[in-house]
Amino acid sequence: MKGSEPIPITLGPARRAGDRPGTDRRLIDAFGRVATDLRVSLTDRCNLRCTYCMPAEGLAWLPRREILTDDEINRLVRIAVERLGIREVRFTGGEPLLRPGLERIIAATAALRPRPDISVTTNGIGLARRAQALADSGLQRINVSLDTLRADRFRSLARRDRIGDVLDGLRSARRAGLRPVKVNAVLMRGVNDDEAVDLLRYCVDNGFELRFIEQMPLGAGWAWRRENMVAAEEILVRLSAEFTLTPTREPRAGAPAERWLVDGGPATVGVIASVTRPFCSACDRTRLTADGQIRSCLFSASETDLRGLLRTGAVDEQIADRWRLAMWGKAAGHGVDTSGFAQPSRSMSTIGG
Ligand code: SAM
Ligand code: SF4
């Protein structure tokens, strides 16, 4: 398939172990990558139970006192933007719409200078009611997760009978002027891999931008199997049976999705091949968990606590310095497709996808 050659790893040489970020005030790592994209998990809770993400009974939720307050989140986002060079902020979870203060958090983020690009990743439940308020608060674009268009399948995949709410949410997001409205879909073998074409047709017809995400070994049940993952290559073959796909060949920079024009455009489809074509060498992300831990990577084995600093009176620059140090130690790559890979103890929903 055109446009899907392996991505060369072109990291600079690591500096000596123990080196510090030096005078660079940004979130630079020892390989020279600079994080400008912040993912903030607003909660570990969720109102769906997607089989690849959470067990039916849910997880042992973080105690409320450990979750950052709205003010604490606003302060950390401000430090990230004003002192650390963050230019994009994505709010996620768990389910970010479960956070009652989401609109106020977005408004506080939108008031920062330079104003970051702001987005939300959501399962869409409750979005119909809130899309306009979110847009009015300063939200620019949104990603809604939708793995199937079939109500019965949705019910077994998400363990809740809520597909109607998600589809309503998508329409409301479009009506509220959020652009683009992206749809995230994870295909699983024998579950929904026969819906690649239907999902793309639905998105093209409705003006949504579809992105397929390769399933990663981050589910709470530790049930990921390489052979059950539907790889980018296979997704493209399935789509090509019905659509003409032309690589957009835009510079990938830190953008994980590779995109194709659908039938000559303007509609596009993206594939995030985190497993088979990792983009670690261009990664520009830093992550803040709902309980105030910095992770330099989804797959990090360690975290750096900022909540303790926040709650013991640290000044902004002390917090910024701890954050810089956390990112300096970012690993070269996640190694998911290698034999020595170990799944992190936190699942996707508690890290923030
Ligand atoms: N609840 C929100 C949602 O579903 O959009 C936000 C959090 S969810 C963890 C973010 C995204 O991660 C969703 O698109 C979901 O499909 C995806 N996701 C969850 N577990 C995954 C996994 N193991 N591999 C790949 N993507 C995953
Ligand atoms: Fe909830 Fe999102 Fe995980 Fe599904 S993928 S269970 S909606 S956090």
Describe the structure.
By secondary structure, the protein is α/β, with parallel strands linked by helices. The protein has a domain at 27-181 and 274-351: TIM Barrel (Alpha-Beta Barrel), CATH 3.20.20.70. Helices cover 28% and strands 16% of the residues. It contains ten helices and 14 strands. A twelve-stranded mixed β-sheet has the order 9-10-11-8-7-6-5-4-3-12-13-14. Strands 1-2 form a two-stranded antiparallel sheet. β13 (293-295) and β14 (304-305) form a beta hairpin. The longest helix is centred in the first third of the chain and has 15 residues, at 70-84. It starts with 26 loop residues before the first strand and ends with a helix. It binds S-adenosylmethionine and iron/sulfur cluster. Iron/sulfur cluster is lined by residues 46, 48-50, 53-54, 93-95, 123, 145, 349. S-adenosylmethionine binds next to β5 and α10. It catalyses: GTP + AH2 + S-adenosyl-L-methionine = (8S)-3',8-cyclo-7,8-dihydroguanosine 5'-triphosphate + 5'-deoxyadenosine + L-methionine + A + H(+). [4Fe-4S] cluster 2 binds at residues 280, 283, 297. This is GTP 3',8-cyclase.
Q: Outline of this structure?
A:
With 353 residues, this protein is an alpha/beta fold. The chain has a domain at 27-181 and 274-351: Aldolase class I (TIM Barrel, Alpha-Beta Barrel), CATH 3.20.20.70. The chain has helices at residues 70-84, 102-110, 127-137, 151-158, 163-175, 196-206, 232-240, 307-311, 316-328, 348-351, and strands spanning 27-28, 34-35, 37-41, 88-92, 117-122, 141-145, 181-185, 209-213, 245-247, 258-262, 268-272, 285-288, 293-295, 304-305.
